[in-house]
Amino acid sequence: MTQPADTAARRLVETLVMNGVDRVFCVPGESYLAVLDALADVRDRIQVIACRHEAGAANMAEAYGKLTGKPGVCMVTRGPGATHASIGVHTAHQDSTPMILFVGQIALTDRGRGAFQEVDYREVFGGLAKWATEIESPQRTVEVVERAFATALQGRMGPVVVALPEDILDEDGGPAPIRPVTPAKAAPDPAFVEQVRERLSKAERPLLVLGGSGWTDEATTAIGDWAERLGLPLALSFRRKDLVSNDRANYAGDLGLGCNPKLTARVKAADLILAIGARLGENPTQGYTLLDRARTAETLIHIHPGPEELGRVWTPLLSAAADNSLAALALSQIDPGRSWADEAAAARADYDAFIQPVQVTGAVNMSEVIRHLAEALPDDAILTNGAGNFAAWLHRFHRHRARRTQLAPTSGAMGYGYPAAIAAKSVHPDRDVVCIAGDGDYLMTGQEIATAVQYGINVVVVVVDNGTYGTIRMHQETHYPGAARTIATDLKNPDFVRYAEAFGAFGVRCERTEDFPAALEAARNAGRPALVHLITSAEDIAPGRTISGLRSK
């Protein structure tokens, strides 16, 4: 049976096509069958990737949005499907990522009856999304979906949730879309730019901090060149290490978890902090301890596309609600009449010293493993990760040399990295995509290896297996030390090589640092999805930290 040409389901799909959507990540459900049927007619323009869990699908959509700057689109069924997908919505919100989640919904005529899998999505997603709504009139379908695109892309980017009552999808969908959504962007006031120039011209110890989303390559290149030319030390916010090349002479490091103490000292000593795009939230400010409200009132120039973020925590000296890229392009024209070459050289030297490999107790040294990744992979290789202490090794020791090469959740979501890698490889099949995952982290979404095999998405995952939930174990040992106090953090893991092979993927086990290069090469050349099972010691709980060392304090 073929749908009529003007149903709400068809109007929805037409709006997706009009706005350049080229893939949809989903778990199918009977509540939105009409939309799936409409997608069948545009499969030459929109690839539908069916996933094995809604969390995987939502994480893929979030990663797509982060990688491309276009809203990632996810479709799930009602009730459990939507709540499973909520993790991706939360990550998109925390990470300022454009994303649209379409959720099948019960019939409008059954609302309020406690119908099968009934959920009020405005209520459930009201605090997680920028906007959560339900299409209540089929003739307003295009209007609602276009507003979803605009909301996801304008100001501080973020996720939108749209519920689709199943009884309206086959009804008359109203007018067709006319043109794609063009998001509005605000540029900084020229008078503000002049104020920044004046403040910079008087600064002795300035620091440039970049973060957030929505950046263009032109803008990051312009602001990077400008800062390097002036010798202006440049730091990147938490998990935004791919905004500029980490090989720039003025690069000072990233303000994340396990931050370089020399960099935190530099932030505290700065007499001017120019922050573009970064929200300056909990992790970049080391638990809100790195900055001081009285001091920021004299030293902080804060630029962010979302006005609600300005003055939210820190009192700024100057602030502007402006698009990150437009602001960066404007500021890169400034000539403050001076340079800070010595400051940049010192900041770079501190960074270089911090990323040197460290000693470990076990047979696998993760600092050497990560260093090899930088040597073996092309500059445009995409690295992904979820959450856990394993990620500290990646973020500290890997140098990102190109834009759009890091996919990592500032939300700290476990299970993010592997679906993110699948999304990235689906967009860029010609680029190396490697996920670094902890053992606990990987099994949150490891079943998506079936998705990778089914669609021939040949990602590589390195499963760092230390048999423990490392981050929690580290905190246990810090606050409640002793083997007798360890609880709920030990893991009994499968043979990950056989796990991969059971799905039709390639697997290889690695137990020594010196064996990792060959294992990585075999995985990269496998011609199918691949997994490297890397056995590490829980004793080496974090760079420069051991469990016994924590217990002895």
Give short descriptive properties of this protein:
six-stranded parallel sheet, single chain, 21 helices, alpha/beta, about 550 residues
Which structural category do the helix and sheet elements fall into? alpha/beta
Count of alpha/pi helices = 21
* Chain-averaged pLDDT: 96
Strand order of the largest sheet: 2-1-3-4-6-5
**Rg (C-alpha, Å):** 24 Å
User: How far apart lie the N and C ends?
Assistant: 71 Å
What is the β-strand count? 18
Sum up the overall morphology in one term. Answer: globular
- Unreliable residue stretches: none
Residue share in helix: 25-40%
- Percentage beta strand: 15-25%
Major β-sheet, in short?
Answer: 6 strands, parallel
Structural account:
There is one protein chain. Helix content is 37%, strand content 16%. It has 21 helices and 18 strands. α20 (516-524) links the parallel β17 and β18 (530-535). The longest helix has 15 residues, at 54-68. The mean pLDDT is 96.
Topology:
Layout: H1 8-18, E1 23-26, H2 33-40, E2 47-50, H3 54-68, E3 72-76, H4 80-94, E4 99-105, H5 121-125, E5 131-134, H6 141-153, E6 159-165, H7 190-202, E7 206-210, H8 217-230, E8 234-237, E9 251-255, H9 261-269, E10 272-276, H10 293-299, E11 300-304, E12 318-321, H11 324-331, H12 341-354, H13 366-376, E13 382-385, H14 390-397, E14 406-407, H15 417-427, E15 433-438, H16 439-445, H17 449-455, E16 460-465, H18 470-479, H19 496-502, E17 506-510, H20 516-524, E18 530-535, H21 547-551
Parallel strand pairs: 1-2, 1-3, 3-4, 4-6, 5-6, 7-8, 7-10, 8-9, 10-11, 11-12, 13-14, 13-15, 15-16, 16-18, 17-18
